[in-house]
Amino acid sequence: MSSKNQPNGVTPRREFLGQIATAAVALAGTACVAPALATSQGAPASSTPTPRPPAPKTVFDDSWTQRLTGKHKAVFDSPEIFGGAAIYQAELWASGFKEMYNVTDADAQAVLVLRHAAVPMVFSDAIWTKYEIGKRRKVKDDKGAWVKTNPYVESLARARERGSIILGCNLAAMGIAASIARDTKQDIEAVRSEIRSNLVPGALLMPSGIFALHRAQEAGCTYMRAG
User: Fold this and answer.
1) Where are any strands of DSSP class E within the chain?
2) Which of 157, 161, 137 lies closest to 147, judged by CA?
3) CB atoms within 10 A of CB 14
């Protein structure tokens, strides 16, 4: 076909090739602009949080089982505070052996397992005051006010003097620590460490209260449910 029949002397083939070239230039320009915009605006920051280092493994003390040398041994299971019933029932149990067989404290030993809702009984006065444990656990004084300090510290001290072993549930204690950390907007590991470092004298935390109950029975204790 003669080129004189086409406007401006452009053949269909040349027009088609020209359109392809124009489109290619446009695409190339777009491809160049996109990286430039990304560079000028800055790459988005990674949303992946920095992983928290694992908490140090808790080391538990099992040596208390070696102190259970009495002829008569019992473990008192206290999943609730029950007004300190476990402490008083253990004392009543030991008194029975003393009256019946004229034995000493060394012959009648009790293990107190304070677990679940009763675990604050092993927290120090400082923890009870700072974090209002009385209010959290609905423990009131004789006047109906929330107690400010641990009302069982002295009773537990007397029980320990008689040879009783005081065990708390670490699982429940750390659960309370998590709740406190959330309510007070603190680091959870910091609160957990604070509680572990502020127990009543002589108290030991075990992996769980259930573990402590089983371990005491393995060591020769009969089982008593407090309450």
Assistant:
1) 72-78, 108-114, 165-169, 204-206, 222-225
2) 137
3) 12
Question: Cα–Cα distance between 154 and 78 in angstroms, integer?
Answer: 18
Give the pLDDT mean for 7-31.
42
CA dist 8 and 12 (Å) reads 11
DSSP symbols for 64-128: GGGG---SEEEEEEESS-GGGHHHHHHHHHHHHHHHHH---GGGEEEEEEE-GGGGGGGB-HHHH
At residue 168, φ and ψ (nearest 5 deg) are: -120, 155
Q: Is the dihedral of CA 187, 212, 128, 227 positive or negative?
A: positive
Instruction: Report d(CA 117, CA 80) in Å as an integer.
Output: 5
Q: 74's torsion region: left (phi>0), alpha (psi -120 to 50) or beta?
A: beta
Amino acid 179: pLDDT? 97
Structure tokens at 155: 């009773």
Nearest to 59 by CA among 144, 170, 146, 172: 170
The pLDDT of residue 171: 98
If you search the block for the tokens 């700072």, which residue do you land on?
A: 130
The string of pLDDT tens digits covering residues 150-177 is 999 999 999 999 999 999 999 999 999 9
Q: Which residue has the tokens 């019992």?
A: 74
Give the pTM.
Answer: 0.76
